[in-house]
Specification:
The protein has about 270 residues and is of the alpha+beta class. The chain has eight helices and eight strands, in the order ααααααββββαββββα. The chain folds into two domains: about 140 residues, Orthogonal Bundle (Butyryl-Coa Dehydrogenase, subunit A, domain 1), CATH 1.10.540.10; about 110 residues, Butyryl-CoA Dehydrogenase, subunit A, domain 2 (Beta Barrel). Strands 1-4-5-8 form a four-stranded mixed beta sheet. A four-stranded antiparallel beta sheet has the order 2-3-7-6, with no helix packed on it. A hairpin with a 2-residue loop joins β2 and β3.
């Protein structure tokens, strides 16, 4: 019995996505695992086919879909036997910070390319000495005129190597209360003072590239801040709820597929 109310549009989307993944993703999964990264071209193919950032409004190139489209993408990707082209991370964890909090100018600048796959995103919260305790981050963001100067480091950043655009959590060191000191900023790869470190070795999920970030007097426009200054912690608490939902859905799908495979091999 189906407990989710899928429409004909949802079902058509699932069929098109399943056919796309069978042709463009699954045959390459083993090679991507060996390479330790998914080529940017694969993201672009998925974007051009309309399978990235399904919540984004048609005003910015998306389909303005509901969350069931995200559920479908997560379910179907779980069938591909790879975790490198992790579209839910880009589409349902990182990009929602832009759709919810970015200025109209930033949305117009970045969202169409996020939808098309020309831009792949990552979120940078975790630091060497601050993991789940977001109030403990020390990466500094200091305003100087119409710029923000960033200094600090991040680690264990998924999509870190291939990411073109980063949602960065940083704090104003002049504000003592950590819950009022954190803001979120958009930082483009290639910005002077922003360097990507080594690709981190992991026990699994090899094609899901994970990296370190380093910021040394990295200057970005103040207009690259998402929302109001000091609201970053509240934004993270809001969007981390959807992140947990996406990850729980992914875990459920992976476990269901594993049970299916075990039954078939018995």
């Amino acid at each position: 019995m189906e407990i989710l109310n899928y429409t004909e549009d949802h079902l058509d989307f699932r069929k098109r996505l399943r056919d796309f993944l069978a042709k463009e993703v699954t045959p390459h999964a083993d090679q991507w695992e060996k390479d330790g990264v998914v080529p940017k071209a694969a993201w672009q193919k998925m974007g051009r086919a309309g399978f990235l950032c399904t919540e984004v409004s048609p005003d910015y190139g998306g389909i303005g879909g509901d969350f069931l489209y995200s559920v479908i993408v997560t379910e179907e990707i779980s069938r591909t036997h790879q975790n490198g082209l992790v579209a839910p991370l880009h589409s349902d964890i990182v990009v929602p910070y832009i759709t919810a909090y970015a200025s109209p100018e930033l949305k117009k600048k970045y969202l169409p390319d996020c939808v098309s796959g020309a831009i792949v995103t990552a979120v940078a919260m975790t630091e060497p000495d601050a993991g789940s305790d977001l109030a403990g981050i020390t990466t500094a963001a200091v305003e100087e005129g119409d710029q923000v100067v960033l200094n600090g480091s991040k680690t264990f950043i998924s999509n870190g190597i291939i990411a073109d655009l980063i949602v960065l959590a940083a704090r104003d060191p002049a504000i003592e209360d950590p819950y009022q000191a954190i803001s979120l900023y958009l930082v483009e790869s290639g910005t002077p003072g922003f360097e990507k470190g080594r690709r981190l070795k992991k026990m699994g999920l090899w094609s899901q590239d994970t990296a370190e970030f380093f910021f040394s007097t990295c200057r970005i426009p103040k207009t690259n801040r998402l929302g109001k200054k000091g609201d970053g912690f509240l934004m993270l608490m809001d969007k981390l709820q959807q992140e947990r939902l996406v990850l729980d859905t992914q875990t459920y799908c992976d476990q269901r597929l594993l049970r299916h495979l075990q039954v078939r091999t018995q």
